[in-house]
Amino acid sequence: MLKQEKINIEDTNMALFGSPIEKEIKKLAAQGEPAWKTAGKAPGIDVWRIEKFQVKAWPKDHYGKFYDGDSYIVLRTYKKEDALAWDVHFWLGEHTTLDEAGTAAYKTVELDDFLNGTPVQYREVQGFESEKFLALFPKIEILKGGIDSGFKHVTAAEYKPRLLHIKGTVKNVVVREVPIAHTSLNRGDSFILDLGLKVYQFNGQKSGIAEKSKATQLARALDDERGSKVEILVLAETDADDDAQHFWSHFGGKAAIKESEGDDHQASKVEKKMFRVHHEANKTDFTEVKYHKSSLASDDVFVCDSIHTIFIWCGKGANPTERKEGFTFAQSYLNKKNKEEGRPATLPIVRVMEGGENEEFLANFH
Length: 366
Description:
This protein is of the alpha/beta class. The chain folds into three domains: 1-136, 3-Layer(aba) Sandwich (Severin), CATH 3.40.20.10; 153-249, Severin; 264-366, Severin (3-Layer(aba) Sandwich), CATH 3.40.20. It has eight helices and 17 strands. The protein has helices spanning 9-12, 20-30, 98-114, 131-134, 209-226, 242-249, 320-341, 359-363, and strands spanning 44-51, 54-57, 65-67, 71-80, 83-92, 120-125, 139-143, 162-168, 173-178, 190-194, 198-203, 231-236, 273-280, 283-289, 301-305, 310-314, 349-353. Helix 2 crosses helix 3 (98-114). The longest helix is centred in the C-terminal third of the chain and has 22 residues, at 320-341. The radius of gyration is 22 Å and the shape is globular.
């Protein structure tokens, strides 16, 4: 199980809602966070990394680059009917610590309070990011390491080889660092074997135009940032010259690789479901209702399983207990489906407020 799956996400989100006085206290506390001073003031993207329980601004020239040992907060500010609106994502790397992930979740709630509780919130887990998150950056690069990795200049003599996996479409391409092994390769994607001053671009037989193009761009970017001339070699799976042999030598020799990684066929067997969270007489019920927009009622909270995303819809008249327990029920429901049906425990969980629904949520009822 990934480390971030052990995080008690629902506990870190218990402070999402409460009485007006509690909300005002939390907003005042949020205003004391230096990182939020200019957050959400104008359309654009802001990124912060959690560093030793602190929220630190991420360099703009590294937007789209994440380390799998860290946790990040990403804020998108945009115009909606002549007013500002926000999406806030907290991204958890596969090897982030519990402390960092918990801080990211807590600080996301704090940022939400700072913006008057109106943003749409997303929990993002490495490898299972929402389409909304992937669309924020032209390219996403996920590297091994964490805070201590920094951005150190590395000479050719001390450079450690790495393999980058390039996968996606024209709109969204994700670059992930993977182990240098035959099992990491497949015929449907492109890869870069980065050896410092020599870079191999390996294109699988079924790799797409977007993946090949992004791999080429990345190889050129590596050349630009090294400060020394980098030799770039483009290989196909069928090549057998000396360059190809040198490439395969890093994998222990050439061997058969798997076909394209297809979609999750299990998702086609899953049905959309909706549940009503209702609290009355010191008891909270979690009851299934018809999956239809007309089932939503302002005086309750609803958990909507749209197959690839779990939405929490909070009605304007829902009481504080319902608002608090919506996330708890969503997380418990997902954990149950993971054990019983093998559903990914890392599915995005998204909270939306009545009146602030985004297109992604509304599209699930079309």
